[in-house]
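Here is a protein:
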Amino acid sequence: MPFIDLESNLAASKFSEDFLKKLGSKTAAVLGKPEERMMLVVKPGLPMLMGGTCAPCVILSVSAIGVTDTAEKNKEHSANIFTFLIEELGLTEDRIVIRFYALEPHQVGKKGTVMSYL
């Protein structure tokens, strides 16, 4: 069950339902996870400073079980997600940062238990 959190100083109008569906689909494919398990939150319109400027930017956090636990995997994920964000949002590489978090099954609760027991 991957969690995708996107924070940005871009206006909410940049993040339509269509964009959310595309981002969910793209990240599911990149991570090799089923789309129906994706959890996606977008927080637009935030006051943000990146690299000394408040120009449009995005911080994307990817938290998942078993697919974000090595530099090699995350390098590949990063390249694919960067391409998507650049094309969809019109940002340059220097205005996007992606953070990867490796989760263990016992750290994700669902249906009154944790993923270890599902």
